[in-house]
Every structure is written in structure tokens, then in C-alpha cells.
Amino acid sequence: LAGNGTLPQAADAAGAMVPLRLLLAALSVGWVAALEDPGKPAPTAEQEFEVPEAGATGGGAADRALTSGEANGSLVEEWDRTMDGFVPELLLTFPLAARSDEFFFEDVPEGPPPLIRGGFFAAASEETSSVEFSITDPKGKVVYKKDDAAEGLFQVLAETPGTYTFCVSNHKWMQEKMVTFAVGKGKEPHLQSEHLTSMEDHVKSIERTLMDIQTESTYLWIRQKSHMKAVESIHNRVLAFCVVEFLILIGLSGFQVYYIKGLLSDRRIL
After folding, report:
1. Which pTM value belongs to this model?
2. Whether the predicted pLDDT of 9 surpasses 60
3. Cα-based distances in Å from 62 to 49, 65, 71, 159, 259
């Protein structure tokens, strides 16, 4: 049957008719509701396909929602615990065809071994979707691997310099998936509230600087005034000493003139 193509054509036709039937059913429900009660607005698409309450559908849907919530909570907790300050060097969302692999490469130079961190997330049209993810070091050794997982986080210490290979595989036969992949190197702290300075902090810093300048200026002025007083006192003492010395010299000069004149006027000595 597969050789003549009858069965695949019938399956494609049936698959194409399903969305058309759903659309016609939704439109017919809206028209009937409008004819029954003209004053009542027609139900919207959100109301038509609204998820029933847990009591009406049983415990299965509630259990699945609880499990999904626990998984999301664990992923968020793991992100908060291991991905603090993560800045991706590559953040890409791409389609992954069925039975195909996608490879990414990260070069690690010589030097201190950096920490390679990142994560992946896979989504498809069905409720559950999973991929296979692995990391291979330059020597070909698988350092990280996760099979049949819809999402995950990884941390690898790149001790071996070279090219690291990231492989995302989709082993489904007929299912194409959308995969989001992020990777980055290093563990640098991200911007936090304590790293930011507010206007009040700037004003306080300016106020402290002005107080320091005022204190230093007051100290220098007092010091300079003290030095000026000391210089003035020394100047006054030097001036007084000079006046006294001048008076002494005048007195001695007058005494010498008087003494020599007395000697010259005394004829007996001659």
C-alpha cells in the first residue's frame, strides 16, 4: 500500500480536513447562539476553547498541571541557584526537523578554565516534547548528556582548551520542534541594587566632600595665621634690636669723638 501512495494521500487528506471541521464547528456554534438570543453576544474563541474546571474533567488534568508546576518550580529554583549573573553569548531559537541534529561550537583558549553555562528548551505542537542534548569536549569525551528532556540547564568547567561541541538531536519521525538554546562563558556578577547609586547618595557624597574642603581650608587658614603672627613677632624683635644697636653705635661714636677731642685740646699731653 505504501508503494502506490494511496494510504499516505488518504492520511494527508484526513489531516487537512480536521482543522477545517473544527473551524466550521466553531462558526456554527456562534451562529446558533446568536440566533437563539440576539441580545446575548456570541461566544469568543477563548470562551469556546476554554479549559474546563478540574471538578468537571476529573483529577487527571489537575495532576498534570500540578506536575508541570512542580517541574517549572524546580527549573526556576535551579536557575536561581546555578545561573546567577548569567549573560548569554549566544541566544537562538530555531526549528529542529524530525530525525535531525543541530550542532553548536564554543572555542576555549589557553588559560584558566572558564565555566560554560547555558540551557535549552524544546516545544512542539503536542503537550510533551523532548530532545536529546549532549556536550563533547575537544578530546571527544561526553562531559554532559541529557536524554528525552524538554528543558535543562548545564554547567561545565572547560578544563581542556579547544572546541566544545553542543549537539541537539530530534529523534522523532514526524515531529518538528522549536528549540531555544543559550550558552555563555564565565561567571561574572550582574548588576544589582547595591551597585547603583541614587541621587541621595550623590548629594551625601558632595556634602561630605564640601565638609572636607571646609575643614581643610579652616585648618590651613589657622595654620597660616599662626605663622604670620610668628613672622610678625620676629620682625618686631629684629626691628627693636636694630634700633637699640643703632643707638648704641651713635652713643659709642659720640663718646669716641668727645674723647679724641679732649685729647687733642689738652696741650700738656703734647
Report:
1. 0.45
2. no
3. 17, 5, 14, 45, 136
